[in-house]
Amino acid sequence: MAAESIGTSTHWTRHVVRHAGFAGGVLALIVVVALLAPLISPYDPIAQPDIIGLKNAAPSFVHPFGTDSFSRDVLSRCIYGARVSLSVAGLATVIAVTLGTLYGAIAGYAGGVIDAVMMRFVDAALAIPRVLLLIAILALWNGLPLWLLVVVLGVTGWFGLSRMVRAQVLSLRELDFVAAARAVGASSPRILIRHILPNVVPTIIVAATLGIGHVIILEAGLSYLGLGVQPPSASWGSIIQDGADQVGSAWWISLFPGLLIVTTAIACNALGDALHAAFDPRHTTGAMAELDS
Amino acid sequence: MNNMKSDAPLLEVSRLSKSFSSHRGLSRKKAADIRAVNDVSFSIARGETLGVVGESGCGKTTMGRSILRLLEPTAGKVEFGGVDVLGLRGAALRSMRRRMQIVFQDPFSSLNPRMTVGAAVREGILIHQLAHGRDADQRVKVLFEEVGLDPAYVSRYPHEFSGGQRQRIGVARALSVEPEMIVCDEPVSALDVSVQAQVINLLQDLQRDRGLTYLFIAHDLSVVQHIADRVAVMYLGRIVEIASSKDLYSDPIMPYTQALLSAVPRPEPGRQTARIVLQGEPPSPANPPPGCVFYPRCHHPRKDEACTQIIPPLEEKTPGHFAACIKEPPRTVELLMLAAQAAR
Amino acid sequence: MSESLLRVNDLRTYFHDAGAIARAVDGVSFDVARGETVAVVGESGSGKSVTALSILRLIRNPGRIEAGSSILFEGREMLGLSEKEMRDIRGNRIAMIFQEPMSALNPVLTVGEQIAEVVRVHTDASRHEAWERAVEMLALTGMSDPRERATAYPHEMSGGMRQRVMIAMALVLRPALLIADEPTTALDVTIQAQILELLQKLQEQLGMAVLLITHDLGVVAEVADRVVVMYGGEVVERATVTELFDSPQHPYTEGLMNAMPRLDQKTARLTTIPGIVPPSTSWPGGCRFRDRCAYAWERCEMEHPPLYAVGENHESRCHLAIEPDRRQSPHEPLAARAGAHQ
Ligand SMILES: Nc1ncnc2c1ncn2[C@@H]1O[C@H](COP(=O)(O)OP(=O)(O)O)[C@@H](O)[C@H]1O
Ligand SMILES: Nc1ncnc2c1ncn2[C@@H]1O[C@H](COP(=O)(O)OP(=O)(O)O)[C@@H](O)[C@H]1O
Ligand SMILES: [Mg+2]
Ligand SMILES: [Mg+2]
Known about the structure:
The complex is a heterotrimer.
Chain A: H1 10-35, H2 37-40, H3 74-110, H4 112-127, H5 130-138, H6 146-155, H7 159-172, H8 176-183, H9 188-224, H10 236-243, H11 252-279, H12 284-292
Chain B: E1 9-20, E2 34-45, E3 49-53, H1 60-67, E4 75-80, E5 83-84, H2 90-97, E6 100-103, H3 117-127, H4 133-146, H5 163-175, E7 181-185, H6 193-210, E8 213-217, H7 221-227, E9 230-235, E10 238-244, H8 245-250, H9 255-263, H10 306-309, E11 315-318, E12 321-323, H11 332-343
Parallel strand pairs in B: 3-8, 3-9, 6-7, 7-8
Antiparallel strand pairs in B: 1-2, 1-4, 4-5, 9-10, 10-12, 11-12
Helix pairs in contact in B: 3-4, 3-5, 4-5, 5-6
Chain C: E1 4-17, E2 20-33, E3 37-41, H1 48-55, E4 63-65, E5 70-73, E6 76-77, H2 83-89, E7 94-97, H3 101-104, H4 111-122, H5 127-140, H6 146-149, H7 159-171, E8 177-181, H8 189-206, E9 209-214, H9 217-223, E10 226-231, E11 234-240, H10 241-246, H11 251-259, H12 298-302, E12 308-311, E13 314-316, H13 334-338
Parallel strand pairs in C: 3-9, 3-10, 7-8, 8-9
Antiparallel strand pairs in C: 1-2, 1-4, 1-5, 5-6, 10-11, 11-13, 12-13
Helix pairs in contact in C: 4-5, 4-7, 5-7, 7-8
The complex binds adenosine-5'-diphosphate (2 copies) and magnesium ion (MG) (2 copies).
Residues 48-49 of chain C line the site of one magnesium ion.
């Protein structure tokens, strides 16, 4: 009805929705598999039925992903590993997003010296490569509990997001609708929560989606180095580690979890990009409506 | 309209100034302050419309927002209904906000894209506890009717509306808290003429029905003439002339006002207006010229050194007609000669 | 119209967007003689900018100039030209300036370089000659110390200065036609007066024709020789400027004139045109203005009005031309009744 909305390309919208739909579908499938692990997993992931006879068995009809050097079924381990990988990444991202949003929103809304000080800290934190930071922290522990790994991954992962949130808040708070809210007597917390943050949500969702993919890879890397998930828990990363010294003879142990990591990460990125495009104000009109419904 | 005016002014602004400092964050490097509003005084009677005109950047928006405490003035005094607005804090300030509202220029940025338009209008009602639940919803619908919008639209989002409709929503939001005065900051500048006329008529109807007082900011002189009882002309942060609409348009005193008026294109083909085309552009408010701020561009035939020595005070030249010029106003003949000279 | 420089005939520019077709420009005809100023007026969304862009063939996908349209410039059919031939014309024989000069200027080049670039693209001037012409052109636009200004970047200039730069860039090759799309809309009145005066002065000096797009009838009255009023992608009225202001024939033109507050006559209440311009994907059948019109009757619903001749060099797309008595019985327009809510 409004003349302004006519430019929206519905063709383009459909393209994005399909793209996002496919990536989202892949992710949803992986999540469902992880949730239903006890029901669909063909074997017990830590059972060692025949350490000699079934050691490093190649993929076959009964063991589609083969077995490892303890005769454990790699498919079952991957299914259970999905639980660990996804929940570590998911929870760490929740922590990171919460911290980043709060920190960024406060800095952006307060402005002035508070903002400047807070952002200098972020600049400093961003100057240290995250992997090095993580290795330095994790090396302090021997046999790190899983929850601590989640916390450490979360606490080191919010700097970039806080910057994005802060930049958005900074420009949003100058807009007239914020002045209008103040003019009718809205308090600062109310303005932040009701007016500013809802407009930052798209950024947060996109950042979170991209962040999950990133943390999955990061956790896999750490687990591969022996710094991440500790036995008997196994993430995709630690399964790769199990097969690492036999890649030549028993490639399947590392290949399948590796493929899963890559697939999940790509799906996260694709979904993040698609969401990013969908939230772009130039296209919002149609795309958002379809995503909302 | 006229019978609602009483003598005690509703709004009294004295010596209001607002500067923006240009250093940022932690760096202490300081450039000259931008003196966006500089020592401005005026008052508005209840039920009156004071128009404010001037070119972009002259400080109209800053002045409007400083009065509403959406910006903190650097100096001066604002009294509304006898209350010292600048001294208010916390709850007292918030309840004062009920009495003075604002309608914005930009129909796009003035509405939260992620809030339904009904919620936007309801917000003030809830904050000030004017109504709750169903009653509040009902009030919103009545307001929609009042500004000429279909009440069924309350659950829609801003992007579904045209520019004119959004301005109506902005007006409804301002009315939601039952204010006495509304600062209209170029409410029709972004609209097409036909829609502009609709919104102007709406604002006039509301003023008549509710006894509202308007501070009406615009850069379009014809619009201001149409709607205002009195008009203030701003230049580089200062009010340089203020008078009844009739006097100001028929008998402008400040050379700047004369130039501004003569620059307006008239919809009368063939009428060669005697036009004073101002040279150059207004100087930067960070670095205003000494004395009369208009001096460098002034065409007054008798302007001289004296103009750069003192800042001309706003003086009452004829009853109710104030101008900030230390010279006798140029006579019409002189202006015609000037225009003729310029044409050659 | 002995010597027509530009002749636009039955121009149709549609945007084909998944299913919906936006008929932005829908059968527009007018011409521009050498040296004259023709104004195109109408509210936003009436198709003015698309018309201008079509003349320069700057319409991009999904927009298309439909078959049957014709644009003759200096006697040549432009719709048949190759892209390369069009590039020779753009900026050279026909130049264009826009409302927002900032977005039309390159932020990383000095304004002098940008003007010189135009010269170098179209002529075989040397770098030095091109620069000199740029400086000379800036001087023509009334800039003080043009040699120094030429080395400034666009962001270092005010809106009025940038518009002067745009004008210098457009006119440096002495085009036969300048298309100016709302050149003063973003400017203050005093700066607008400067720019309009400058355009008129340069037009006289260089003898070019100007197609001026604007929504401001005051500007039209001041600079135009002839006027084309657009509504709903069509020309609804065409006349000389004095004819148009003395006796507007189309109710839309009349509405525009009455809706405008005027400095010289104080009215208690403005006349409005109720409703808004409908979207170009769904023009109403019959007369496109009928829902907002105070005279509309059955005929306006059934029959799409042609451009009736209503005087010498004066045409109006309104059935009132053949049923003038209807003027005696105005009523409340449909748009005012159906939606007090528009
Ligand atoms: N937040 C701000 N920070 C710095 N300068 C500002 C700010 N807001 C306005 N200004 C400056 O103050 C002057 C007056 O601006 P404004 O009140 O917006 O003028 P107007 O509404 O008359 O166009 C301008 O020079 C503008 O650049
Ligand atoms: N790229 C585009 N895609 C779809 N529709 C367009 C596009 N550009 C313009 N239009 C439509 O064409 C119509 C006329 O637009 P325009 O020529 O810009 O109007 P004006 O310049 O008179 O304000 C509008 O309804 C607009 O929505
Ligand atoms: Mg302003
Ligand atoms: Mg346009």
